[in-house]
Amino acid sequence: MTRLTMRVTLALLLLGGASAVSQAADRALQPLPPRVAGGASMNVGAIQDALPTLDLLITVQLLGGLLERQGITLDAGATQELRVLLLPLLSREELRPADARRLQASVYAVLSPSQELTLKQARAALEARVRAFMTRARFATPDGPLNLTLTRYGLMVPGGQATVKAVVGANGNPYVQAGVNAELLTRLLKLLEP
Question: Are 157 and 73 in contact (CB under 8 A)?
């Protein structure tokens, strides 16, 4: 028995009695849980490559919310342009990061400077809420240190970490699969109808 093990055992005896020592020993003898794909071991480069697609998912969500709350009011021309830009997402099989980046830039180009500022402020507020939550929360991962980028985007992207993991390393389009992102895009397109 090492000194550290003896100290832990003694502390457990003092704090919780023999049953605590027995439970701790039982837990120590159990096999470690299997590594969960997509945790800290997920390739950081793959996540970075997927950021344009993840950012587009967040933009669609925020834009729809702003239009519903009338935080942004679009004229007929901007409404039509956004609809033409976003409608193909419902049927497009692939959405590569470069395409998502161009689409995001096109969405911002349609907005007036004040509308773009409002959208960027909504994004900054979302990020601030996520940062505040992450500073208060305690995260445990079975496979080592926490992947902060995965966790942060998992808290911001509609569909959470499951969506982030599905987007990372794939060129599939999350809008063609049934789920929250398809619903958000459909709702946004309805708001953009003339």
Answer: no
